[in-house]
Amino acid sequence: MKSGSLSTYLPVKRERKPSSSAKEIPARARRTHPVSKESRGASDILPLFEFSNVVNSSVDLKFILGTVLLTVMGKMLVSKGMVLLKRDPGQFEVVNAKGLGSETVGQMLRIERPIRSVDYTDRAGASQPWLGFFRERGQKLLVPIMAQRRIVGLLSLGERLGGKRYSKSEHQLINSLVNLSAAAIEKALMIEQLREVNRSLDRKYQELNTLFDLSKEFNVILDADKVIRLLTFSLLGQIGVNRYAFCLDDGGKLKLVASKLDRELGPQDTLKQLCALKGADLVENLARQKRFHAVAAQLTRVGIVAVVPMQIQNQVKGAVLLGEKLRGASYSKADLEFLYSLANLAIISIENARLFREAIEKQRLEDELAIAREIQQGLLPAKLPVIPGFETAAINVSSKQVGGDYYDVVPIHDDQFIMVIGDVSGKGTPAALLMANVQASLRAFAPMGLSLSDATRRINDLTTMNTGQDKFITFFWGSLNAVTREFRYVNAGHNPPFLLRANGAIERLDIGGIILGLMKTLTPYQEGSVILGPGDVVVMFTDGVSEAMNAEEEDFTEERLEEVLKRVRAMPPAEIIEQIQLALEGHTQGTPQSDDITMLVFKTL
What we know:
Elements: H1 6-9, H2 20-24, H3 27-31, H4 37-56, H5 61-76, E1 81-88, E2 91-98, E3 108-110, E4 119-120, H6 129-136, E5 139-147, E6 150-158, H7 168-219, H8 224-238, E7 244-250, E8 253-260, E9 281-282, H9 283-286, H10 293-301, E10 306-312, E11 315-322, H11 333-379, E12 390-397, E13 405-413, E14 416-424, H12 428-445, H13 452-466, E15 473-481, E16 486-492, E17 498-500, E18 506-508, E19 512-513, E20 528-531, E21 537-541, H14 543-546, H15 557-568, H16 573-588, E22 597-604
Parallel strand pairs: 16-19
Antiparallel strand pairs: 1-2, 1-6, 2-3, 4-5, 5-6, 7-8, 7-11, 9-10, 10-11, 12-22, 13-14, 14-15, 15-16, 16-20, 17-18, 17-21, 21-22
C-alpha cells in the first residue's frame, strides 16, 4: 500500500456494466429507484476509516504528516501545501512542504491570532504580518490541527486547479481528515519528545562520566599550565572549537594566559567586565546588555562567540572564550551548561595549584626566617659580661618577622668594654647576614687598638663594598673604660642614646657621621667622649621603641621615652627596661608589634 496514493484512501467511481436483469428494468423504473443516502454515506466513510487506520498505526511523525498532506492535496487537487507544528506558545515551525522550495522547511513563524476553524489567507481586512508568509507561498486555506481542544499544528493549502474555491462540504472533509490524524500526530509528538528526553539523558550521562573522569585527572595535577592543556584537549574532543582563549584572575583583572586566535585579543583591561557574569552565555546575548558592550565588541572582532566564566564561591577567577564549532553548529543550552561545569572543575584545580605553590613559598619563607632567627640569636650575647663598677641589662623583643636589630657587649681588656647597638634596614635572612658581617668586622677591628673613628670608617667601607644601595645600618658603639669611667663613642646615624645624669641633666650622644653601607667614607667619623659619674645612666635603643605605633598609627616618640626615663632614672637598668616596656604596652594597647624592640642600658654604681 503506497503512502499518499489517492486510490488507497479515497472513494473511486468505476463504470459498471449493467447486468441482464438491469437491462430488463425500464429506464423509468431505474430512475424511480435511486441509490439510498445511507449507501452513499457508507461508501464515503470506508476510505476515512482506512485513512485513520493507516495514520494511527504509525508513530513516525514524518510519515504521518506526509500522508495527511498528500491525501488532502490529492483530494482537493492542490499542488502546494505545508504542515506546521506548534513548538512554543505562538511559535510554529514548517515541518513538511510540498510544491515549495526546500528552504521553506524549518522556518519558524509567529502566529499572533489563534485559528480555531478553516480560514482563508486572503479574507477581507486581513493584515497580520504572518499572513504574508502564506500569501507569498501561494497558500489560500488554513486548517488548524486540534487535539483535545488545543491546537498542535496547522495545515495550509494552495490554490486548487482551475481556481475553484473550497466548498463547505470540502471544508468538512478536510476537517475530518485533519481531525482523524490529530491524535496520531499528538502521539507521535509525545514519542518524539520521549526520544529527545532519552537522548538528552544519554547526553547528560555521557557528560557526567566525562566530568567525573576529568575531575580525577584535575585533582592529581598541581600545575596550572597542565590543567589548562587538559582543559584544551577536553574542549577540542567534547565540543570541537576552532578558536579559544583562557583568562585567569590577576589582581582583580582577567589576564590572557593561553589562546589560539587568528588576531590579537586587544586591551585586556576590558576583560574585567566579564567578572560580572553569572553563567555561561553567548557573546551575541552579552552585546544586548549595556555593561558588556565594550567586551562583546572586542570578543566579536576576534571571532569569539561564547564566554564561560570560571567561578569559585560566586567569584569569577577566570574565563574560557570559545569560537565557533568546527562544524559551524551553534552552542545549545546543554553545551553551555556542560562547559560551565567543566570550566569550574578546571578553576578549582588551578586554584588548588596556586594554593599549593603559595604553601611551598610560605614554607620556604618560614625556613628562611628560621635561619635568620637562628643567625640573629647567635649574634646576641647569651649572657652579658660583668663590668666592674657598672650594672648592665639588655633586651631584644622580635616582631613577627625577623629583623636586623643587634646589641653586644664585647670585652677588650679587663677594664675596657665595647658597647654596641645597631639596626639593619629590611628583614629576614639578608638583614641577619648583613648584621653578622658587621659583627665580624667589629670583633676583628676592636682588638687592633684602632681609634673608634678609624675602625668605624673601615667597617663602613667594607659594608658599602659588600651591600647594595638598598641596604644600610644605623650603628652606635662606644668604648667604656671601667677604671676612668670614660665612654668614647661614634654614632653612625643611629637614634642618639640618652645620658641621664644623677643631677637630673639629660644629654644625647649624637656625635659621629653617616650611616653604614650607604657610601664610602668621605668625611672622617667624629668621636665623642663623656665621663660618667656615680648614678649616671646610658640608655641605648633602636627605633622599634620610639616608633612603636598605636591603633591610630601614632608613634610612641622619643619625647615620651624621655618622660619615662625622667621618672625611672634612679632604678637599676633591668627595672628601667621593664618600665619602658610597660609604657610601650600602654601606648600600643594590643596593636601588633611592627618592629623589633632592642635596648641596652648600663649604669654607674
